[in-house]
Design goal:
The protein is α/β, with parallel strands linked by helices and 461 residues long. Among the domains are: 6-89 and 113-164 and 299-330, NAD(P)-binding Rossmann-like Domain (Rossmann fold, 3-Layer(aba) Sandwich); 405-454. 47% of the residues lie in helices and 15% in strands. The chain has helices at 18-26, 43-60, 72-76, 90-105, 117-133, 146-156, 171-178, 209-226, 239-248, 256-259, 268-275, 287-307, 313-317, 326-335, 381-404, 407-415, 423-434, 443-447, 451-456, and strands spanning 6-10, 35-39, 65-69, 81-84, 138-141, 160-163, 185-188, 191-192, 195-198, 200-203, 206-207, 251-253, 339-346, 359-367, 370-373. A six-stranded parallel beta sheet has the order 3-2-1-4-5-6, with helices on both faces. The protein has a three-stranded antiparallel beta sheet with strand order 7-10-11, covered by helices on one side. The protein has a three-stranded antiparallel beta sheet with strand order 8-9-12. β14 and β15 form a beta hairpin.
Length: 461
Amino acid sequence: MSKSLKISVIGAGSAQFSLGIVKDLCLTKGLDGSHVTFMDLDEGRLDMIYKLAFRYAQQLGSALTFDKTLDRQAALDGSDFVLNAVYVLGHVVEANMRELAADKYGYYHTGGQFGAYHQLRFMLDLAQDMEKICPAAWLIQSGNPVFDGCTLMTRETSIKVCGLCHGHYHYREIAQTIGIDPDRVTWQAPGLNHNIWLTHFIYEGKDAYPLIDEWIATQGEEYWRTHVAQITHDAQMSRGAAHQYHLYGLFPIGDTVRRGGWWYHTDIAAKKRWYGEPWGGPDTHLARPYFVKTLTARVAEMTRWANDPNTDMVKAIGTQKTREQIVPIIDGLVNNTEGYFQVNVPNHGALAGLPDDLVVEVPAIVNQKGIQPVRVGSLPPKIMLEQILPDWLETERELHAFKTGDRSMLLYGVLNHHQTKSYDQAVAILDELMDLDEVKETEDWAKMKRIGDYYKYPRKL
């Protein structure tokens, strides 16, 4: 028998998120009859997604119902699950910040060194609202930074938080590239969000790492010389990924590949060497505009569908479930449809060497008992010392800066950036980025000291 739930989507105007959730809900019998509330501050995008969802469900004969609101508190009222996909500043502001950093201060394709303040502020506000309005609901966090934000929310509130990301699916790209069936692979890739490592890669009962080694030795150079990425995030089998594997002994998975060390990211020539043509990976002045362009085109297409009552929505988006984990996890928690998922949840001993209240990315069994992380043991010492522990320390600095309003801790991060050449350069760029109109929009933000104040008075007053 299907369960009737209220599922609230915060930031529902996302170009890639909400419609996929609706499709999966419509195709999950155990959740038929649920109610979906869309919430967004962009009324045009909100209307668009509402129309598309309603018509898709109607065509399929689904019993899902929908409403929409600009009021976050109203959306939370009565919710069983809250899905957060909000990106506060947005891609346009991010692009402007990167351009400023490059043109005026000489940083190659970087920006936002003030940290993730606006995202963290929104995440914490949302979780605190949930404590008051729907304290028993689950919060499923999809917007970045998943690691920092989920750690903050679980430490500061009593809300049940689960962070999700797509990056782990790139194990399938490894399998496909080396010529084995990804559906017959058993794998495990624990760590921190955007910092996960392939500890197990088993094919037909045998360790498949030797197949990766053989591919690198016999086909790697030809692949790196001739492969042309079709999407900006096509970097899983890049030279940079293989280089990290040889450095650390385990293959980096998904967005982990984009991290590496500073030497992968000095300029576009280095980017292309390590991450290939035509963009040099997803984080370049070539890739980001293309990525945003594709999102804009997707929104335009969806808007055309919404404005044309004759659009066949089933034909437009199909009837095959997405690979998103959100709806299957909800189904597992509510209907005991047990599944095995990759999640970001408080550690509680799942990944050795890290505190219990730090959110880690690990496999988990999900059923009516809850989300139960698998104890995966430890990662190799070199990965812990050079990747995991520094990432944890950086997050602790970020969260402390957020909680205390101490901009000097953000300055520390800029001073340690590999492209920073002087103290004055770091002070100047951070002050200018933080004083952008789109950035200084909150009262508590305005009360924080300018970095230049620390230049004049080294100790905090």
